[in-house]
Amino acid sequence: MDTPVNPADQALARLREDFQGHRIWRATRYDGRLGDWVATLHDPKAGIDPTVICNTAEELRKALTNELSRAACRPRPDPRKWVRR
Asked: 6 Cβ partners below 8 Å, 6+ apart?
């Protein structure tokens, strides 16, 4: 028996696999149906904004790719600065 695969479930699984520094989920609308695509930052190396909300999986993928680029450009603190002498 072939079980039908929901494309939205596949997109969600791919996003979760590709952007493991975020918790990715679908918001629930007021009427109980699935709504926006949401990513919450859990690894500071994966982004800047704590939460990213988009209308579609494709938009969220673009936004999270941009977040990765922004995080890569962020200056890293110098750990020697915090060493007590």
From this structure: none
